[in-house]
Amino acid sequence: MGKGIDAYVADHQFRKRDPRFKDVDRYKERHRRERAALFGKSVLFLPKNFTLSADQRFCICPAGKRLYRNGGNVVIHGYRAVKFRGRKTDCRVCELRSQCLKHPDRTEARQAHFFLGRSESAPETFSQKMKRKIDSLTGRMIYGQRIGTAEPVFANIRFNKGLDYFTLRGKRKVNTQWLLFCVVHNLGKIHQLGLATA
Question: Which of 65, 120, 127, 168 gives the lowest tally of CB atoms within 10 Å of its CB?
Fold first, then answer.
């Protein structure tokens, strides 16, 4: 932080927020179904399979039953949410129970959460600031350069050369070993492509 480095660090949801990857969920859905068929499990319903009413007083489950609100202004990890819970009498005899509950043998009723956005009372975290920075047009452009500059180096060192873990402990020793990894990478480039590429 004191070195004045203008960092751009992506989070796990970075690609999900990118408009260029808006169709990625359809491939994930197919993957979920194929995995469930392979391991003999049923595909569980997600919150997107539940229909929220316009006044947010109830939601409808995939079986057509009502889940009633049991929390209207809940804050979960800094995000406002509305909570719903199904009736035990409906869930106990439901045909879709195995697809709705992760543990149908010990869970009595389904619960669902719908997130409405960040809570006003929650202060903006460093992660939120970085998300705002990296989601900007400039941030996406700068982070996009990583694919052509940094990623090939790490891929070559870790997968091609097999140098994917440190055998020493301590900052100085690990740094020395990392510099040796970089020497191996650069010598390989010189050997393969000549001095101009090193």
Answer: 120
Which residue ranges make up each domain of the chain? 44-134, 151-197
Q: Is 139 helix (H, G, I), strand (E, B) or coil?
A: helix
Helix ranges (H only) for the chain are: 14-17, 24-39, 88-92, 97-100, 126-134, 137-144, 146-149, 151-155, 171-193
pTM value is 0.48
Q: Is 156 exposed, middle or buried (0-12, 13-18, 19+ CB in 10 A)?
A: middle
- The sign of the dihedral angle between the CA atoms of 174, 175, 176, 177 is positive
Strand-pair category, 79-86 with 111-118: antiparallel
For 157, half-sphere exposure in the C-beta direction (CA atoms, 13 angstrom radius) is 18
Question: Which distant-in-sequence residues (6+ apart) come within 8 Å of 94 by Cβ?
Answer: 63, 65, 100
Burial of residue 11, with CB atoms counted within 10 A of its CB: 0-12 exposed, 13-18 middle, 19 or more buried: middle
Return the number of other C-beta atoms located less than 10 Å from residue 185's C-beta.
19
Q: What is the pLDDT of residues 159-178, one digit of tens each?
A: 999 998 999 999 999 999 99
Strand partners, 52: 59
Tell me if 110 sits within 8 A of 60, measured CB to CB.
Answer: no
Q: How many CB atoms lie within 10 A of CB 117?
A: 8
pLDDT digits (tens, 9 = 90+) for 63-102: 888 888 887 778 877 778 888 988 888 888 888 888 888 8
